[in-house]
Amino acid sequence: MRKLILSLLVVVGLFFACTDRDDDVNAVNIRIKNNTESLFNEVLIVENDTVYENIPAGEFSEYIEFQRAFEATELTVKTDSTTLTYTPSEVFTDSLPIGFYTYELSFDEAQQIELTFRIEY
Fold this sequence. Notes:
It is built from one helix and eight strands; from the N terminus they run αββββββββ. With about 120 residues, the chain is mainly beta. It has a four-stranded mixed sheet, with no helix packed on it. A four-stranded antiparallel sheet has the order 3-2-5-6, with no helix packed on it.
């Protein structure tokens, strides 16, 4: 009987101790996905002067919180061999709602940055 009560307490404790990543969201959270074959030494979000560092090929960065962020934004990518700048063709004026988002960055045939915006659920 003692083991049953102890097991029940442990299970209940674990249930309340675990939180989902979006339980405590109070800002726009953006991460970078490196969809290239190059290491991104640095990705600079120009508007917020925010830097993501060392994103391996095919991998994601950590999320960074922003008070304001947009579907597309000007950014600079530094790799070992080059520095490229992305400027969106559209201007977005409304900030994204609170949540989790990904900027997927790849290079086109002319070695220019392509940004694909993803909403994470």
